[in-house]
Every structure is written in structure tokens, then in C-alpha cells.
Design brief:
The protein is of the alpha+beta class and 519 residues long. The strands form 5 sheets. The chain has an 8-stranded mixed beta sheet, sandwiched between helices. A 5-stranded mixed barrel has the order 1-2-3-5-4. The chain starts with 28 loop residues before the first helix and ends in a 20-residue tail after the last helix. The N terminus is likely disordered.
């Protein structure tokens, strides 16, 4: 039982899973695997698609049970932990009366060994017929090889069984899946070939769970609001449209849940949040996916300042959960979440980037024209914001709250009492990305109605085909909404930053892709 374990591979494919792979020897690997599957059925009476198994533990849990023994301790094999594990085969080699395989599951890798003398004849024949990618169950005691490799030594009638025969070879263990679009399209193969992918999505799940715990502990109530909405409201974006046949009405996949969550403030819930999907029928790039996850938060008798404290505390909590120092690498930078986030006004950043004030509209338009930005026929403040996005947002790597946005581009936000051209809003930037805004919410129904009308007047012809004033929301405001602060937080971008991922595709399990071409 102290034979050294080989770590050689065979039968892998560098072709995309789902296509027949034909290596140099000319053997169609899928056809060969189908033949093996029929042999298992006919010769060994083995169901190649297995059944339920009780008592399974993960490979990491099995590894943790191993206790290295000193040379003076007993070597009684009966004292070694007995485990039952399952995984997909990533390495496999037959060495006479001994077969080695390395399994992989969501928690890592672990070697198993099948000796002819320790298992049934059927199990040993099965071990020799296995292919890379097959999912097996192994039962036996933990031990090590001569080289110190931790191994499950299969034994007994249930020492080895087949849970699922793989008909398609997995990606080659050396080259793996390299094409980024293919990795997203074949996420199941990507997760097997690249364990770091599984780790990223495990971290995402833990981050979202931690957000919920944080919000719950602060007294916020999690709710769900409609995904299908009769009015495309809550944000300025192009919606996906659909139609409900029974009611014979047009509907929209929601752009944002904002107006429904505010209705709950009117109804008397003081602290409310929702983590869910939004949909925007717009472009796709490394920071945008048409279907994305966000968290919106509303707090009665709060404002943009209480929202600032909540968001900074939350993100610092998440970052130190991932890395106790709070310093997390991202692209070519290390982002420090432990120190206080920078606070700077919109006007200050604009002045620093452009050399003139946001109120100098002649200079604003002159520079916008020089940079070929949209300008003709647009409201002054829209041109200001186009220029701000093109110049002032650059270099905002470390966490930065940008405060006091122009009121004209923030139609749902309360104006500053001493300077109504600006409003009580901030946007948080990290890694030159907008992570989310926060507003002191507008709760004056007449002013809100005026803002809605102005927004519609400034919309183009296409926008006016799906935009309209949400009269029911205005009715709710007339009933009376308490002063409040509201927050939007992009979960996908936040996970990108906290996991060191470069694109949004890396943190969305199944991002939207063009349909695969023929072949």
C-alpha cells in the first residue's frame, strides 16, 4: 500500500466539450466512452448513472481528517479514518494491480487508490475502465503513499462505484479553457478545469449572505417587489418590453425597484431593502450585463449622509471578511478598504479635471465639442455630466464618495436647501467604476410631478414610447412619505472588486452571450 502515485494524464481534450474529440491515434473519444458504458452495463451489471449515496463528505473535509503520525505511533490500519467521498476524475492511471485516480469536487482535489486485492473484481474492472471526467464514489481509509500523497485506499464491496459516466472528455489539464467567451458558454467545464472559478462564485455567495446578515442586524426588512412592471420607472434606462396576454397589457422587465420600495415607506415600513435582478436593454462590456444584481435600500428619516455611513461600514465589513487587512488587489492596484473613504464634491472633481467650473456653461460646451461629446440641443447640465464622466471619473481607484450632483440629472433627489441647482446625492466610485448612488429622497409630490414632466420633456422620441408618469406613485407621495435616504448598490461590480475579478462576466455564472455560431 506504499506504492508511489503517478500524476500523469490521459484522454484529455483541448477541444470544446460537446464536440467529438479525435486525438492523433484516430480514435473518437466519445464513441470509445459510449462503448465502455455499454461494457459496464453488459459485462459488470453496473448502472453508469448511479444513485443516491449517504454519508458523503467533501474532499476537503476528508483531507482535514488526516492526522500525520510520528514514527513511534501505532500504524494499525484500523485506526485510520474511514471516509466516503465523490468527485470527478481529473487524473487516472492503471499500474498493473493498482489504479490511481485524482478526484476533484467543489472543495479541491484528493487522490484515491484501488488495489485489486482490496475491492471486488467488478470494482477493479470498473477502475480500469474509468475515463477522465467520470464521476465516482470512493470508500476506504485515509493513508499516504511513499511520496507522502494523501490517498483514500478503496476497500470492501462499496470501495468504488460509478455515479455518472462522462461521454465528453473534459478540457485538457494543461491548456484548459482559455477563450473567455467559451469559458462563460461552458461554465460547467470552466468550473472543473479552473478551480479558481468555483472559488470566486463561492465567495460571491458568501458576500451576498454577509450583506443580508449585515442589513438584517441593522433592522432592515428584506422584501421582493415586481419584476414585471406596467411602467418603466425608477431610473433612466431602456427597458426590455413584453406583453401579458390575459390582461392584454404591455409590461416591462424592471429597470429598478425604487418606486415600489418607496411605496413601502409610505405604508409604514421604516427600513427596507431588496437584493434582486434588474434589466436594462443596453450594451454589454466588461462592466455591464443586461441582467444584473443590485441592492436597493430605503430608510425613513434617513438621508444621503446616513446612507454614506451605512455603505462605507458595509463594504469595509465585507472587505475585511475577505482579507483581514482590508487591502485587496484588483487589476494593477491594491484597494485599501480599511482607511476612511475619500469624500469630494462633484464640482471639485470637475474643476480639478477641466480647469473651469461646472457653472461655466460656455466653457463646458466648448470642451465637449472639442472632445466630440454629445452637446448640441442638450440641456446644459446633461452636457456638464457627459464631460464629468469623460474626464473627472478617471483615476478614482480608491473608494471615493462624490457628493452634491446637479439636481437636473437627479430627478428623484431632494435639492440642497442653500444651493438648489445641486442635490443631496452621492455616487461611490471604486476602481474607476460607479458602485452605486445614494439620495436624500424627494417626498414633495408636486415637485416630484414637475420633475417627472421635465424628464419626459427631455426624452427623445424612442424613450417616449415606453416612458410615462407613474400616477400611482404620485398618489402614494400625496398620501405622505416620510423623509428618507435611498441607496443603490451594484452587487456584481462589488463582487468583482472583492474577488479581484477583471470583468463582470467573471462574477456572473451565466452572462448574456451571442448565440453560438454553427459548429
Amino acid at each position: 500500500m506504499n506504492t508511489a502515485s503517478p500524476q500523469t494524464d490521459h484522454g484529455g481534450s483541448d477541444l470544446p466539450p460537446g464536440s467529438a474529440s479525435t486525438p492523433a491515434g484516430g480514435v473518437d473519444q466519445e464513441a470509445d466512452r459510449r462503448n465502455k458504458r455499454e461494457r459496464l452495463r453488459a459485462e459488470l451489471g453496473i448502472d453508469p448513472y448511479g444513485g443516491s449515496i449517504s454519508g458523503l463528505i467533501s474532499l476537503a473535509e476528508a483531507r482535514a481528517l488526516h492526522q500525520p503520525r510520528s514514527e513511534h505511533e501505532s500504524t494499525d490500519e484500523d485506526q485510520r479514518p474511514l471516509v466516503c467521498v465523490a468527485g470527478r476524475i481529473r487524473l487516472h492511471r492503471v499500474m498493473g494491480n493498482l489504479v490511481f485516480a485524482t478526484l476533484r469536487d467543489h472543495s479541491g482535489d484528493l487522490q484515491i487508490a484501488i488495489s485489486k486485492k482490496s475491492v471486488t473484481p467488478e470494482a477493479f474492472k470498473l477502475a480500469k475502465l474509468l475515463d477522465l471526467g467520470d464521476i465516482v464514489v470512493a470508500s476506504g481509509r485515509l493513508g499516504t503513499t511513499r511520496t507522502g500523497e494523501l490517498t483514500v485506499w478503496c476497500e470492501g464491496d462499496d470501495g468504488l462505484s460509478l455515479a455518472c459516466k462522462s461521454l465528453t472528455p473534459p478540457p485538457d489539464k494543461h491548456s484548459g479553457l482559455q477563450d473567455s467567451e467559451l469559458r462563460c458558454r461552458l461554465r460547467y467545464a470552466d468550473m472543473f478545469a479552473n478551480p479558481a472559478v468555483t472559488e470566486t462564485f463561492q465567495k460571491r455567495s458568501k458576500i451576498v449572505s454577509a450583506i443580508r446578515r449585515f442589513m438584517d442586524e441593522r433592522g432592515f426588512l428584506e422584501v421582493e417587489t415586481p419584476m414585471l412592471q406596467p411602467i418603466a420607472g425608477g431610473a433612466a434606462a431602456k427597458p426590455f418590453t413584453t406583453h401579458h396576454n390575459a390582461l392584454d397589457i404591455p409590461l416591462f422587465l424592471r429597470i429598478a425597484p425604487e418606486l415600489y420600495l418607496k411605496r413601502l415607506l409610505v405604508g409604514g415600513i421604516p427600513k427596507v431593502y431588496e437584493i434582486n435582478r434588474n434589466f436594462r436593454n443596453e450594451g454589454v462590456d466588461r462592466r455591464h450585463n443586461p441582467e444584473f444584481t443590485s441592492m436597493e435600500v430605503y430608510e425613513a428619516f434617513g438621508d444621503h449622509r446616513t446612507g454614506l455611513e451605512l455603505v462605507e461600514s458595509l463594504i469595509r465589513h465585507l472587505a475585511t471578511m475577505i482579507e483581514p487587512s482590508g487591502a485587496i488587489p484588483w487589476t494593477d492596484h491594491v484597494i485599501d478598504y480599511a482607511r476612511p473613504f475619500r469624500q469630494v464634491t462633484y464640482a471639485e472633481l470637475f474643476q480639478q479635471a477641466n480647469g473651469f467650473s461646472i457653472f461655466d456653461f460656455d466653457q463646458v460646451r466648448k470642451k465637449a465639442r472639442a472632445m466630440h461629446l454629445p452637446e448640441a440641443g442638450l440641456d446644459n447640465w446633461l452636457v456638464v455630466n457627459h464631460l464629468f464622466e469623460a474626464t473627472a471619473e478617471k483615476g478614482l481607484i480608491q473608494p471615493t464618495f462624490v457628493l452634491d450632483y446637479p439636481s437636473a440629472i437627479s430627478p428623484l433627489t431632494r435639492p440642497k436647501s442653500d444651493q438648489p441647482e445641486l442635490c443631496e446625492r452621492w455616487d461611490l466610485f471604486i476602481g474607476e467604476m460607479e458602485i452605486g448612488p445614494c439620495y436624500t429622497e424627494l417626498n414633495d409630490p408636486d415637485l416630484q410631478q414637475q420633475r417627472f414632466r421635465e424628464q419626459l420633456a427631455g426624452a427623445d422620441e424612442e424613450e417616449n414610447t415606453f416612458r410615462s408618469v407613474d400616477e400611482d406613485f404620485l398618489a402614494a407621495l400625496r398620501f405622505g412619505m416620510p423623509p428618507a435616504g435611498g441607496i443603490g448598490l451594484g452587487i456584481d461590480r462589488l463582487v468583482m472588486l472583492l474577488t479581484g475579478s477583471r470583468t463582470i462576466r467573471d462574477v456572473i455564472l451565466f452572462p448574456l452571450l451571442r448565440p453560438a455560431g454553427p459548429g
